[in-house]
Amino acid sequence: MAERHRAFELFLRAAGRLLAREHGEIYADQVLTDARVEYERVHPQVPDIGGRANVFQPVMVVNGWIVALHRALRSRGHGPERVITLGQAVFDGWLRRIPNGVRHALGRLLLSGPVTRYFESQARRSQERRHAEDFVWKVEKAPDGEMAMIFDECAVNKWYEAQEVRELRPFCNFADVTYSGLMGMGIDASTTIGQGCDRCELRFKRGRETLVPANLRGIIGADGPPAGTNQPS
């Protein structure tokens, strides 16, 4: 639990520095204080979808951070785009601390045969529906080298529903586009349940530019898109 709090504090302080530039330190400190209060309420409710046995458990932890900060910002009149813009900027900054060559090596590793087989085992496990709040997904591989994660049920969207922050749902894929652009993973994450589709699709292909879908334009790379991304007209 202490590790969760430390990670949240790092995230919050990074977001606070960005807020201070735009609104001043007093305003940023007030937002952060409220976000900490919200997190005390939120973190016990973050669903356990299998703990360390589930590759996506950290995704739920991070979305606890997003919900807490969003509530602190929402109370001051900010829409959902504000917390997503901050989250994207923080994650982008963290990833850019990793040397470019190392980032791309990690991207290749995550799409390698052994890791894909691990994902397939995780996907089969999800089909057992051991946890009602979990993702339910499968892996599809295409002859052209594309590897797709297809989600019939999305734990992030379930979480947003349970926390009554439905307004965050259209932006549930922001982190996927951020890391893909910086790691050269060529994702197309245009299809999501949060946008009203019947499933979420994360389609990866090395050597392809990462697509910034319409729901994230103006949020991903607010100061210019990450390297390796494409924002079609």
General description of the model:
With 233 residues, the chain is mainly α. It has a single domain, classed as H-NOX domain (Alpha-Beta Complex). 51% of the residues lie in helices and 9% in strands. It has eight helices and five strands, in the order ααααααββααβββ. It has helices spanning 2-23, 25-42, 57-74, 80-96, 100-110, 113-126, 155-162, 174-183, and strands at 136-141, 147-153, 200-204, 210-211, 229-230. Strands 1-2-3 form a three-stranded antiparallel beta sheet. Strands 4-5 form a two-stranded parallel ribbon. β1 (136-141) and β2 form a beta hairpin. α1 (2-23) runs antiparallel to α2 (25-42) and α1 packs across α4.
Count of helices? 8
The coarse overall form would be globular
> What value does the average pLDDT take?
92
Query: Between the first and last Cα atoms, what is the distance in angstroms?
Result: 44 Å
Give the amount of beta strand, in percent. 5-15%
The run of helices and strands is HHHHHHEEHHEEE
Uncertain segments are none
* CATH fold annotation: H-NOX domain
Structural class by helix and strand composition: mainly alpha
